Amino acid sequence: MKILHTSDWHLGHVLYGYDRTDEQQSMLDQMIEIAREEKPDLFLVSGDVYHTAEPKPAVQKMFNKTIANLSKSCPEMTIVITAGNHDSPTKHEIFKTPWEALNVHVIGRLDKENLESHIIEIPGKGFVIALPFTYDRFLPEDIYQQLIDLTNQKNRDNLPVVFSAHTAISGVDFSGHEDGDDKRVGGVDVMDVTAIGDGYDYLALGHIHKPQFVHTGKHNVRYSGSPMAVSFDEAYAHSVTIVDIPAHNVPLTDDNFTIVEIKNPRPLVTLPNPQNTREFGVWEDVWALYAAYPADAKEYIRLNILNPESLPSNAYDKAIEQAKGKDYVFCFINAKRKSIARGDGNQQQMTVQEFQAVNPWTVVQMYASDTQNPLFDEEDLHPLFDEVLDDLNLKED
Description:
- This protein has about 400 residues and is of the alpha/beta class.
- It has two domains: about 1-260, 4-Layer Sandwich (Purple Acid Phosphatase, chain A, domain 2); about 270-360, no CATH class.
- It has ten helices and 21 strands.
- The strands form five sheets. The chain has a six-stranded mixed beta sheet with strand order 6-5-4-1-16-17.
- Strand 18, helix 6 (about 285-290) and strand 19 (about 300-305) form a beta-alpha-beta unit.
- It is globular.
- The mean pLDDT is about 90.
């Protein structure tokens, strides 16, 4: 079975007030062309189709048109789409029945009463286990292995089995996710890959934006990554993954994978160093680079400035004025300052933007250190804190 694996489209994403429809349409058009050339048996989207739970009608129309064109470009291809943590399950489920007429399977929510509805057979080619994002507290025990076992009971011809999930796996590189640590990334609890069980041939993951394999010793677990950068800190190539699975229980190697890069007509660039988005410079040096930037460059630009107190009072206005009449777009001054001294006598370098995005439990720990209050250091409070945070996230969704 040949698969085109993608995820995290984040359609409708707005970058510092700038509409990105043209970039997103280019991304979608490239994927349609890749599908036309590669002719996969399965086009798989592992969550986060939209950036918000309430995408605008124009954004939904762009998605619907893309899926229709995908189906038209490769009529024999099965399309499977699952909801991610940014998506509304209802938005995905509402057109579930008419989509199936085009061999498109949209899975918005977990159906605990009918787990077989999450198993999609591609006749003569293989099986897809399509699990949408679901908060851990609502997942039945051993749900992953249950789905795998159900699938293998159906798999009498030894066909490939693909498991699609939208989650955060421990030990991966979550570069570009501002709110990530070893416990939560992007508001999703981190889990060990072994919890998903055994018996699949390829685990197609969504949620982490950097394309990468998860090292299990089998070379069969991968994040396709986002096909387009959502933040300036995603300073890496974006792509889709083509996977050829010869048969069930046949080990995969690099020869079974093809990574196809997606080009963004308007890349995100950070000055002073586009290759290292964590590098900062003083205003005078960064301004010199910005003032000399090519006028015909079609890029979004962020300025990383050290010691914001040294910024001119008109820094933002000056940066906006500099971009007038140019093809590039000025977005933001990312100012880095020293934080207030902490209880251990040390000072932590952190940008205002980083502090706003830091994991909430980390803020609790920082407060505990500052106040020398042992109550907040107790790990027993961590799961209780996460439970309250999950409640808040559900209400926000």
